[in-house]
Structures are given as C-alpha cells and as structure tokens.
Fold:
Amino acid sequence: MTAEQVGLRVQQVLDRLAEAGQGEAAEELVRTLMEFYGAGLARMAALLPAEALGDELAAGLLVLHDLHPEDVPTRIGRALAAAPGWAVRDFDATAGVLTLRRSEDDAGGGCGCGAAQDEERIEQALACFAPEVGTVELAKQPVLLQIGPRPTVEAR
Structure:
C-alpha cells in the first residue's frame, strides 16, 4: 500500500465517522497518533541510510511528518526518475505548479504519445516524494518541420 492510498483510506474513514457524528473524536485520535508516530520517526530519521530516502513509502512518511532531510527540488528529482526524459523547467512553490520539459537527453525524442502515461507516473511519485507539487504541466515541444531535398524524378 502506498502513502497516497493510506491517506485516501484514512480520509474515507474520517468522512464516515463524521457522518456518524464522531468527527471531532476521530480527528483528535488521528492527531494524537500522528504526533506519536512523528516523534518516533524523528528519532529514526537520523539513523536511516541514504537508500531509504529513495523508497516511496519511507519518503512519504518522512514528508508527511516534515522530517525528510532533502529539499523540495531534490525530492522532485527523485520523483522524475519515475519517468526518464523529463526535466524541471519551472517550479512555482507558492502555487505548487511544476512545469516540466523534455530533457536535453530526450530533446528530439518521440511524438509525445507517452506524455499522458509519464504525467501519471510523475504525479504518483510526486505524491510520495514532493506533495508540495499540486499541479504538473508538461511543456509542449516545438514541432520541427523536416525539410529535405526534393525527390529526383527520373527522365524518360
């Protein structure tokens, strides 16, 4: 189960409890557990090997508790590893908008047909590594017209 799936499940349970008139007690329980787990994770975060920072579940927990030692641009880079060929064009931290462009390594590559799948993979990875990103925009690549010599016509 991913951190995003757990978050959605917790929200669904909280919604059900709120409908049953137990919303305040449920939210207090979640806050208390978050404080408890956060304190424990803070102690463990210093002991984690660097490889753990690349694990989506571990990273998601650290980010959730504001304990992840890496800055947002570094975590965005980890998320982009899920869809190679994309690089950051701009990140508006205030609005949470990340604009991506094709990387130089992939500048001429492809017709963009896989962009939708890439965007979905990137958004899923960002949910764990950099939830500060609320919106992902893929910059359009200019279409280059291929100009070549005119075909030769054989004389008859």
The first strand starts at residue 86 and ends at 92. Residues 1-69 form one domain. The chain has a mean pLDDT of 82.
